[in-house]
Amino acid sequence: FRSGSRSSKTFKPKKNIPEGSHQYELLKHAEATLGSGNLRQAVMLPEGEDLNEWIAVNTVDFFNQINMLYGTITEFCTEGSCPVMSAGPRYEYHWADGTNIKKPIKCSAPKYIDYLMTWVQDQLDDETLFPSKIGVPFPKNFMSVAKTILKRLFRVYAHIYHQHFDSVMRLQEEAHLNTSFKHFIFFVQ
């Protein structure tokens, strides 16, 4: 973690899926199909699997990927360089979580992403929303929660592409970013 005025919470620890669990097996299936190079195949629900379980596993995986990708460019995404969370002049994002911050607030990109990643981590850790035990049902609003998480994670990709792609290229991470983003887009479609 870098020192300074930046919150050390922006880069979140990886969300682990317990080894030996059904979710772990689904993650391994996803990784195996990703290795085939066919991203469209990688996002397909495996035959006989529960849709909510598949969405949960992939949501956790995308959170981890975006978290890692953003973590590589945090030194370039500062209060000074990114005073507004945006993806260009036409797309400015204001933060609200509906609980602590009910009315959307304008904030810097690093602050927005810190709020976002903390909020997502809290959702993923909530056993009533993302149950980790087999047989525990997903809540009725699960699809809506997952869609909101994915919609907000998309904003981090958009910000990285619009504001920091030159840094991504200097770090020679564009292939990883592009593959991750393409996988994400195929999945949400």
From TrEMBL:
SMART domains: Mob1_phocein (SM01388). InterPro entries: MOB_kinase_act_fam (IPR005301), MOB_kinase_act_sf (IPR036703). Zn(2+) binds at C77, C82, H159, H164. Keywords: Kinase, Metal-binding, Transferase, Zinc. GO terms for molecular function: kinase activity. The keyword Metal-binding applies. PANTHER family: MPS ONE BINDER KINASE ACTIVATOR-LIKE MOB. This is MOB1A kinase. The gene is Mob1a.
